[in-house]
């Protein structure tokens, strides 16, 4: 190289950079530069960093995950013991994502419960809809069996092999534990892991960086700088908010999140049933629509089940005040009695207990009049200490991305949190954002720029908005061609309209299979 | 059918740079949208000129647009959207040689403009260094300013901007480049032959010259001149001279005339036609190189000097 060109090239180099950022001695006040800083170590944030660290194109990224809680795998009871009341109904798409990043094999398998069908009925009219993965079973199935080698038989075999599940019930802490184990494994695979897990660390503030000191220094004026309770500061090429419904990251990015509060509370509990089912049996989830909100019974292993009862705040308060055996009677009543009797049972002026109400009303209420499925189990008892309730609300951020910011999970959207779809949507966000960053890295993008992040926002925002919206649910149910749905449709819009919540569940599950 | 295609096709965005000789008679030729006559000087051999290929009129044109290179909604948006395809095309060219993850390559980006491609190349894991040159001082100032927003790019030697023409670039023989990129530049060159030959001197044996440009057809006149400049005003008027657009066959004919280049299909020569579809972005469309935007790549023989 000629001396003139050498000189020119040297002039073009920024010597200040070496001094201030690439020297080994970084003073504590200087922010450490990270490619990704993820705030929030729930299942969504953990799945996001696992996905990044599992992919060869993003494995080298310098990642920090910050959470104010402990980040060690939670203790799980032995099978047959107690179950957490915080469970999620994972769609096949969510399970596929967990398998693809090596997390599913770390799940405590005896504690999860796939279910293969869903019985839904309307508390007012008694109209029933049954969903399973053999849509059109019955007459069509019988006809199909007359045609050798047809696809229905293949799908039947798949069904019998246990692949055709509607969803899989999984305790959130089981999933969290699997994710943490997988992250440990990924960190151990390489001697110098670029993933930094910061547990019990609070984010004290997030602010934009300072203007550059001179013409050749880096300009952090558009970079989020986080200061933490550990005294470390982080400059984030991309700041990811997986920090829940009240997301500080979303507030920093000044992204509005409009929505409304339902005047409803979700009552959750772990229940014991009268029947002990073994793992190979096909399981059904049940949901009944009452004027006060849906009540659902979702299967857990053995004789356990998870209750999700959305109801008025007054009823929620009344339910939580009941003695365990009275609560058990109230749940049995919620699935079996007429809505008017349930309201009376839970009203403040009622002088009878749920047990007495159930014992004299039930014989007078034939199952055919309420639509009660014939195989519906009887709830025997409440698992001690598992009763809790939460207010229900809907929020949707107006965008999921900003300059050097992306939102995933509840930070981006809060839906009926007990529908189980919240976590499924969050995992789908996490998968989509990780995929977008792979694309960005493979094409030399600055992964914090809108050129990279736009793809994530356009992929997820509209999809989530559709799941959140009623129009899409109607569209989906009306585009279905299966027997039971068509039958339900023929009963009129009125019936289907009341089933909005379950349609969300179903369309979410259907989308996950696409 | 043709008019429907024309509407689907979107204008090519702005040039990243202008590296051209002084205006010649060619630019005074009547601009006809209806004939695709052979481009003057496109394939003929001319004497290499020792002077700089920088056209000062064009330089001032790009000065005026310098401010919005990095505006996500500015006039360079289509170039940003095209950038991933450039990497995909480069990968396609390099793939037969085996992508050795430990092999780090040296890139030269000619007509780097605000640094859209140069920055992205400098972030790639298989790139050792990127030298990016442009004759326009204002766009280089934009490029250098934007480089400071990413500390990675400030690592010594990773990305070097130089204000120079290709003729002025001094490269010792042991520092030749593995990949020389020429994106949206060649159509601004009135005498491509001497220009391309000075580029070949900088290319390592076995290395690739990779570029993109626009075919000279009624379709490209309609979309890039009439629609983009006059109707939608997506790009400033005068950004393109349609007469200087170049056909893929003309590029290939030129390459065949250079004995140091390998031009056999899929081994030393690649071409890829791309179309901008509103709402979807740039897409590869087989055969579209004949009438619109396209990428080309040609490989220097291993034994060449």
From TrEMBL, chain A:
Enzyme class: oxidoreductase
GO CC, alphabetical: extrinsic component of mitochondrial inner membrane
GO molecular function: 2-methoxy-6-polyprenolphenol 4-hydroxylase activity; 4-hydroxy-3-all-trans-polyprenylbenzoate oxygenase activity; FAD binding; oxidoreductase activity, acting on paired donors, with incorporation or reduction of molecular oxygen, reduced flavin or flavoprotein as one donor, and incorporation of one atom of oxygen
Enzyme Commission code(s) on record: 1.14.15.45, 1.14.15.46
One Pfam short name: FAD_binding_3
Gene3D superfamilies found in the cross-reference section: FAD/NAD(P)-binding domain
Protein name: Ubiquinone biosynthesis monooxygenase COQ6, mitochondrial
GN (gene name): COQ6
Automatic annotation (TrEMBL), chain B:
Cross-referenced Pfam families: Methyltransf_23
Entry's EC annotation: 2.1.1.64, 2.1.1.-, 2.1.1.114
Cellular component GO terms held in the UniProt record: extrinsic component of mitochondrial inner membrane
Record GO terms (molecular function): 3-demethylubiquinol 3-O-methyltransferase activity; metal ion binding; polyprenyldihydroxybenzoate methyltransferase activity
Signal peptide stretch: none
Oligomer status and interactors: Component of a multi-subunit COQ enzyme complex, composed of at least COQ3, COQ4, COQ5, COQ6, COQ7 and COQ9.
Name the record gives this protein: Ubiquinone biosynthesis O-methyltransferase, mitochondrial
Organism of derivation: Recurvomyces mirabilis
